[in-house]
Each structure stands twice: as structure tokens, then as C-alpha cells.
Task: structure prediction
Amino acid sequence: MASQKLFVGSYAPHWHDGSSLRERHLHIMLACLPAVILGIAQYGIPAFRVVLFSVSCAMLWELLMNKAMSRPVTIGDGNAALIGMVFAMLLPATTPWWMVVVGTFVAIVIGKQIWGGMGCNPCNPVLVAVAILMLSWHDRLDFNAALVNYDFGFTVEHPLTALKYLGPSVVDNYNFSDLFLGQQVGGIGTAFALGLILGGVYLILRGFVRWEISLSFLLGLVITASIFHGANPEKYAGPLFHVLTGYTLIATFFLLPEESSSPVNFVPMLLYGAMAGVLTVLIRNIGFFVDGVVFAVLLVNLANPLLDRIRPKAMGREIEHA
Result:
């Protein structure tokens, strides 16, 4: 019939544990705050404007899509605000307003809503947006160029960019304790390693993030980086440098475990995280892009449906078929 709705995405029947989507998303945003606050303190008003504008634009696109598709208004569940916040965390503090508008449009409209809304997107909406921006306006996401006018009082070159083009000798220019405390150039919410770890541990303890994905990602990254470094220490940096720089820790706790694009079973989660860790180092060491996290996570997002077919056997007696 002409009036019949087609391609409508919805959740499967499930057991409700009493929590709400709004609660979940608010807790994740709360976990983001330590890294975001340090980024604003470090980069000033421009960073605050980017975060605020990104969250506002994401919520506006969500509302417009709800109206355009005649769906219930969903901005109250906090998902659009969370997408806007995490998207802003990956950007330089000097990102122009039009890039925020375009990026949030891609994240909400293309990365989420056209697939049926929350719970139906095959890839992380934030990374879909960042990937499009990286491919379209690569120079605008060059942290060295974007933040050239800042005087931080520490090494002002983006660690992974320096590693990519100058080799592992530049690692000596960075103090690991400084990197851990956010004394490095990067995205608004990606430099403060300690803040990201504290936020991630909080989410794991509250049950909002599965430790299997985070741990297997870090193990995959560390093992792969160690293999490269052991084979040629004059060409490749050690694993700790890879862990503390770039998008590694925000991916560990806020990008990889995104509920719609990650597995739900134990073994698939381990494979999913480990594959992302391996791909991240491969792209950083031998690929074109400075930071391999964005495309590594998107690739394993696409592999997620196949990975999640690896399921434990059902308990009970097997049924014999004639």
C-alpha cells in the first residue's frame, strides 16, 4: 500500500533495567568534562565557542530532521548534544564556524538520521563527520597550522605530525608526564590524557562502557606499536607515545564503544577493539594520515555486523534435524 512505511529502523525487544537514554548520555557528557574543561582553559574563548556552537548545531539539526521526517522530537534524550560535544573535542580550537555547521550536519543527518536515528547507524556519526572534513579540508584540521598563534609554554608541534615527518627522534622533545597531563597540541578535548582516562574509568565502573572494547583496543595498539618499534626503533616510536598522543584515548572510551556501531558479544568485542588498535598503528606508521584512529574505527564499524555473528552457543539440548 502507498501509505505503508518502508525502511523504518527500530530497537529489537529488550529487557529494561530502569535506566534511560537521557541518563546514559548525560553521564557520558559528564565524563567528557575534565578533558573539555582543560581544553577550554588551554585554548581560551575560541575553544569554548567551538564546543558551545557544535552542541547547539547538532541539536538544531536533530530537531530539523525530526520535523522534516515527521518523527517525535528526540533532542531531549541527549544524544545529539553528546554527538556535538564529542565532535568538538576532536577539532582545533580555531575551527571556523562553517566547518562546525557542516560537520554537525554530516554527523546528525548523514551519520545518524538517514539510517533511522539512534540505534540504527552503522558507523560512529562523529567519525563520519571528521572523516569527511579530513578528506575535504585537510589543511583546516592541521593542528600545527591551526594553533600556530598560541604560546603554550611547551612544545607546540603536534606530536603525531612531528613523528610522521621527522621520525622517532622527536619523541625526546616530549615528556611523557607532560603528555599525560595535557601539555601537548591537539584537539580541544583530546590532549588531557589523565582526564580522558578518569572519564573512561568512570563510564566503565558505571556500566556505560564495556571494558572489553577499551582494553582490547589498547592491547592491540600497544602490541602492534611494540612490534614496529622493536623491528626498527630508528623509524618507529614506542607504544607509550602512541597511547598518550592523538585521538587514542578519546577513541578508547568515547568513540569505539559507541553503542550502535560496536559489538555486544564478548569475543566480537575483543576482536573489534584489537583490530582497531592494529589498524590505528598501521595507518600511523605506514599510511598517509597522521592519526589513524578515525579511519581505523570506521573500518571496524563496518566489520561489526560480521564480528557480532560470532556468538556463544545457546544453552540446552541441540535439536536434531532430519
Summary: The first helix runs from residue 21 to 43. The chain is about 60% helix and 0% strand. The chain has a mean pLDDT of 88.
